[in-house]
Amino acid sequence: MSAPSFRLRALERDDLPFVHQLFNDDQIMSYWFDEPFEALVELRDIYDRHIHDERERRFIVDVDGEPAGLVELVGIVDVHRTAEFQIIIAPRHQGRGLAATATRKALDYAFAVLNLHKIYLIVDVANEKAIHVYRKVGFQDEGILREEFFAAGRYRNALRMGVLQHEHLERMEREKRIPGSP
């Protein structure tokens, strides 16, 4: 059996029903510090307003031609060359290593194509699986944001993590020279 084909591709308007499903999953959105969208039309309106926004890049995680997740680089600041990273892997695709692969690909794009200096993220301190993936691909802890967001009836702490361009590019070079390295 051949390995599944994997790619990050640009988010298209036709992908919005898939994204809408993700955004209407209470479990997923609790980790995104946001309430679910109420209507697909709202998501379409947001898409239409942001399609040409140079401060954002949105990708679909595509596995064998099927959408498996969403990756975003948002809040891109040209002066500082920074962006925030966000990811959702659809529940039925979790546990297959897609988050790590998609995160690496997004970092490759952010640093080698957009020439960004730093990518950061904010993650719920209770989301241990995500934190493990982020550390595995090179993100470092930057600090705890106390009572940063409200979810499930209480305020929760978040962890800010970041990775710098030179750290990621050096890691890419090491991985190319040592086949099979993590």
CATH overall fold name: Aminopeptidase
Largest sheet entry = 7 strands, mixed
Strand tally is: 7
Structural class: alpha+beta
> Superfamily at the CATH H level?
Gcn5-related N-acetyltransferase (GNAT)
Distance N to C terminus:
23 Å
Strand content: 25-35%
Shape: globular
Radius of gyration computed on alpha carbons: 16 Å
Order of helices and strands: EHHHEEEHEHEEH
Share in helix: 25-40%
Question: Quick check: average pLDDT?
Answer: 89
Please report the first level of CATH classification, the CATH class.
Alpha Beta
Low-pLDDT ranges: 177-182
The helix count comes to 6
Number of domains: 1
Widest sheet, order of strands: 1-2-3-4-5-7-6
* CATH architecture assignment: 3-Layer(aba) Sandwich
Summarize the structure in words.
With 182 residues, the protein is of the alpha+beta class. The protein has a single domain (6-177), classed as 3-Layer(aba) Sandwich (Aminopeptidase), CATH 3.40.630.30. It contains six helices and seven strands; from the N terminus they run βαααβββαβαββα. The longest helix has 16 residues, at 98-113. It is globular and about 45 Å long. Residues 177-182 have low confidence and may be disordered.
Q: What's the structural blueprint in terms of helices and strands?
A:
Layout: E1 6-10, H1 16-23, H2 26-31, H3 40-50, E2 57-63, E3 66-77, E4 82-89, H4 98-113, E5 118-124, H5 128-136, E6 140-151, E7 154-164, H6 165-177
Parallel strand pairs: 4-5
Antiparallel strand pairs: 1-2, 2-3, 3-4, 5-7, 6-7
Helix pairs in contact: 4-6
